[in-house]
Every structure is written in structure tokens, then in C-alpha cells.
Amino acid sequence: MSQVALVLEARGQHVLKEVPIHEPSAGLMQVRVEAAAVNPADVMMFDDDRGGFVQGYPAVLGWDAAGEVTKIGENVTRFKVGDRIAFMCFPSSTHDGGKSHTARGAFQQYVLADQRYAVKIPAGADYASAASWSAASTTAAGSLYKHFALKEPWLPGGEGAYKGEKLLVLGGSSSVGAYAIQYAVLSGFTVLTTCSPAHFDYVTSLGAASAIDRSAPDAAAQILAGAGGPLGLVIDAISVPATQLLATQVLAEAGRLNLMLAPDPALRPAIDAKKIELLWGMGLEGWYANEPLWAAAEGHLASGAIRFNRVTLLGGGLGAWEKAFEMHRRGEVSGTKLVMTPQQHTL
User: Fold this and answer.
1) Start and end of every Enoyl reductase (ER) domain (predicted)?
2) How far is it, in rounded angstroms, from Cα 64 to Cα 226?
3) Are the beta carbons of 293 and 118 closer than 8 angstroms?
């Protein structure tokens, strides 16, 4: 049997074509992809792949997906055929010793998923929203529990462990920012965040105690007033020069800053003057491969302690990739995750 896939034939060259449906090996599941989210990382990998993620061509990109389990490989015990799941994809990774690099990316109609990095979708939740989960949630959790080395809320005594302490999330309406707010609240923090005023209601609904206009000329003063002084922990979910500058202005001496992108060289003197500790939140180096997070996620999602991101569905099946990539390049994605529906595509 065959399926439609968006195949990366070479750097910067996507082709929609029919390819075989992949068969699951040990520990993997075959999943019918009902929704595939588009991340900025997908665009970066397509345009220049400076991070070296693409292991070989042809490949299939896409980190986030949700769908129905259609087959299971040996040793798969957590899921069964028919389960509705959200799961992390591993674009360009191989499952057959390097013979192919197309089976693990989200941008196709059937993909192979690792049972360790998948979660059942709560009853009533839709596939599109669930597709926002994997990359952004694990990046956000990694900021807190890997890079800041905080106690995970799924460990005994971890939930609410930081009650009374304050934390700032820059870009709280972004995909990573929204999950960072929710995990920080689960850990007990009083969370301050920045975003556009259009998203104030959204971020406060996620648990943020206060929201500051990201463009306000006195944003730093508002943050310091709301926090009662400089902060020890800041997650910059946007990490452009403007947000990095704001972080250096509100961090305390020897504070810790988790970035998604490389630090702006122009800010090095300010960073060094305050002895700010920079922590890296993206890429393989920043990935938080914590299986207990995934095991606990089913309960957190079912209870509403963690909510999926807001999403924007794109028409046109996998053919929507060009529109999605261009929207990311132009900075037109705000407060939502772009999602494609692979099953709608026919050649």
C-alpha cells in the first residue's frame, strides 16, 4: 500500500509524492496522521539546516503529530490499535539502520511513532489541538526541569514545590510560552508573562498571574514592579534581540536565562556584567527526553492541569506547507500553532 508524503528530496526542495506505508519495528507504532503541526524548526531545517538535523536524503520533516494507531510493533505495551494519540516525531531519523530517513517525520499520511514519546488524547479533544503538544511542551518542560534543574511536578512533592516564588515567561502566548506557563503554575510559581494585549485573556486563562504588553516602552519597569524586584528565572520563548534585552534588564545578579535561540552578541557585556547564566532550550542539546513526563501527561491533560495550545487549521492537506512556511518566515504566526491535515490530501 502507498500513501502521500511531503518528501524533502534535497535542501530546500519539497516534493509531494506517493511512498510506501512504513511497517512498525520493535517499540514503534504505525499511526494514521490526522493532524501535523508546523514549527519554526521545520522551516529552519528546510531552508538551511544549520543544526544538522537532516541525516540523509530523501527525508520527511515534521516534529508534531496526532492520529490513530493502526499497527503496533513488538514490545509495544502502552498503546493498542485504535488509540488516539499525540506524539513526538523524529524527522529524518532512521529506523532501519540508515536505509531510509522518511518513516519518522510528521508530514505524511502514516508515520512510525515511538511509544515512549506518545500520550493518549483526552476524550473530547480534537486531533488538531493535540498535534500542538509534543515539541513545544517538552521544550517548555525542559526549560524548567532540565535546564533550571527544578523538581518535576510528577515526582513526590514536586507539584506546587515552588509556591511563593516568581518566574517570568517572555512570549507567553507562543506555543512554548503557553506550555511553560502551565508547567510553571503546576510547579507552584507565580508566573508573569509578556505578550500582545490581544492575548492577555488567553495567557491569564493558562494561569499567568499578570500579563505585560510586550511592546510597552516601560515593560521592564512593569515586570520589576509586578515581581517585586529582579527575577532569578526567566524563560525567553521568543529569544529575538528585543526579548533577550528585556530579560537582561529584569534578571537579578547571577540569574538564569533559558533561550530558544542563540544569544545576541551585542548583549554579551550586559550578560557578563550581571553574571547571567545562559541555558540552551532548543535542538538535540536542549531536548528533554524524559519518559516520566509522557507517562504523567495523560493525567495532566485529562484533568485540565495542562491544556493543548490554540491552533489554526490550514486547508489543502499537505499542500498547505508552503503557506505555513511563508507565514513563519514573515513572522505572521502569533498565539496559535499552524496545523495541516494530511488525510485530506490526494494526488
Assistant:
1) 12-340
2) 35
3) no
Tell me the C-alpha to C-alpha distance, in Å, between residue 301 and each of 56, 80, 206, 294, 331: 35, 19, 13, 11, 29
Nearest to 65 by CA among 84, 44, 92, 41: 84
Domain 137-284: state its class. alpha beta
Q: Which amino acid is at 38?
A: V
The pTM of this model reads 0.94
- Indicate the fold that domain 2-133+309-344 takes in CATH: Quinone Oxidoreductase; Chain A, domain 1 (3.90.180)
Whether residue 30 contacts residue 79, with contact meaning beta carbons closer than 8 Å, is answered with no
Select from 200, 286, 201 the least CA-distant residue to 235: 286
Domain boundaries, given as residue ranges, for the chain? 2-133+309-344, 137-284
Q: How far apart are CA 114 and CA 69, in angstroms?
A: 11
- Whether 101 and 10 have beta carbons less than 8 Å apart is answered as no
What string of DSSP letters covers 21-70?
PPPP-TTEEEEEEEEEEE-HHHHHHHHT-TT----SSSB---SEEEEEEE
CA distance linking residue 178 with residue 175, whole number of Å: 5
Helices (H) and strands (E) in the chain, counts: 11, 15
Across-strand partners of 251?
231
Which is nearest to 81 in space by CA: 24, 137, 9, 40? Answer: 24
Residues 192-211: pLDDT tens digits? 999 999 999 999 999 999 99
User: CA-CA distance, 59 to 110, in Å (whole number)?
Assistant: 14
Length of the chain, in residues: 347
Quickly list H helices, 167-262. 175-186, 200-205, 219-227, 241-250
